[in-house]
Amino acid sequence: MAKRKAYLGVDTGSISTKGVIIDENRQIIARSYLWTEGNPVAAAKRVVAELGSQIDQAAVEVRGVGTTGSARRLVGAMLGAQVVKNEITAHAVGTTFLHPDVRTILEIGGQDSKIICIEGGIAVDYAMNTLCAAGTGAFLSSQAHRLGVEVEDFGELALQSKHPANIAARCTVFAESDLVHKIQVGYPREDIVAGLCRAVATNYLNNVGKGKKIVGPVVFQGGVSKNAGVVHFFEEALGQPVLVDPDGHLMGAFGAALLAADACDSLSDAPAFDFNVADFEFKTREVVCQKCANHCEVIVVYRDGDIIDSWGNRCDKGAIKPKA
Asked: pLDDT per residue over 95-113, tens digit each?
């Protein structure tokens, strides 16, 4: 009996690593969301192992792999990915597949945020904020810890507020100073939490969304999209509904899997993915090329001591070839 074809997508970020497996009908049949913990290789191994445990490997065969996120090249080399794409492309592909009429994608992750403008199902403009952590998932987590509140409870607590506090969240330093002051003068905790959620939405629109025409339908994704308080204040500021997909936090991985499926559908002889990737030892090393005046910093990836990929060279003199 022939195995069902499936496709794997992995999105490795600085805070979290996400993975999905989709079937031939582009439906998610396995999903994983784990913390990266500063080690993208180990995180990717854990995600792959968890995804593998969710499917019947005797009946399902992964025929293609796509990677995205900040560690996409490293994890792509490690998994033998056929497709390695940036986050903008992966998020746009995944979101437009599920929501064909989407016009604006808002995304707030652990340490960065982005906006993608869509026309006719194609990303035509975008902006990213990676310079300041204010308004990101990491920022909210640190403030939740300061308040003694689980970050998962932030949203519901914010919705209980009648008078959100004014929090200056344009910078983490100012925000934390403002937060401490509000605590010291006795503001109710729900008002402080609501103020933080509103500040996140306002900060995003004034910085990441600055100069962008935010047209509906609007889809909000990333880990912070699970915060009902931030969703509420986005809707209040934009004056329109903001859709949060149940799998919005996995959209980069989903998009990478879709791209892998499109790329591999015509490759009947492509080898099946081996879930025993955890058995291999992966290492990276930085090599400074001395063959020209560029002195490129070349990243080299090894699997069990053999070179499998490299990048960073700006000319062919610095190319380091994988072992044949």
From this structure: 999 999 999 999 988 777 8
pTM greater than the 0.85 cutoff:
no
- How far apart (Å, rounded) are the C-alpha atoms in residues 144 and 149? 5
pLDDT, tens digit (0-9, with 9 covering 90-100), for 182-202 = 877 888 888 888 888 888 888
One-letter-per-residue 3-state SS of the chain: CCCEEEEEEEEECCCEEEEEEEECCCCEEEEEEEECCCCHHHHHHHHHHHHHHCCCCCCEEEEEEEEEECCHHHHHHHHCCCEECCHHHHHHHHHHHHCCCCCEEEEECCCCEEEEEEECCEEEEEEEECCCCCCCHHHHHHHHHHHCCCHHHHHHHHCCCCCCCCCCCCCHHHHHHHHHHHHHCCCCHHHHHHHHHHHHHHHHHHHCCCCCCCCCCEEEECHHHHCHHHHHHHHHHHCCCEECCCCHHHHHHHHHHHHHHHHHCCCCCCCCCCCHHHHCCEEEEEEECCCCCCCCEEEEEEECCEEEEEECCCCHHHCCCCCC
Q: For tokens 């300041």, what's the residue?
A: 132
Closest alpha carbon to 26 in 47, 9, 50 = 9
